[in-house]
């Protein structure tokens, strides 16, 4: 059913990202899908690798998920001048460009500000042409 799964990751690894990775790993294992871990960063990116420690962290995370699932897993760092302002459009555009079947994304429980400013996950649900599985 799913051939390509995208998982946006925050390398600080909040609990919701860990849960989203577990769900994506399960989907990948059960559907034989490949997984792309997308990390939006303000660090420079050269030849698909983040210059700095987060590049190694993303590669290690991709290797760990690959070992857990047996699936093909790659890390994709994407450079942004202003991560907070651009992340929503970057994730929507990246899902479309990668032609993924599913985005698995962690999010927090909504707070009062989420009724005024949507979370990144809710923005992706509303504006993506791809199916989005939100994990809390």
TrEMBL record:
Residues 1-136 form the UspA domain. InterPro entries: Rossmann-like_a/b/a_fold, UspA. Pfam families: Usp. Belongs to the universal stress protein A family. PANTHER family: STRESS RESPONSE PROTEIN NHAX, UNIVERSAL STRESS PROTEIN UP12. This is Universal stress protein UspA.
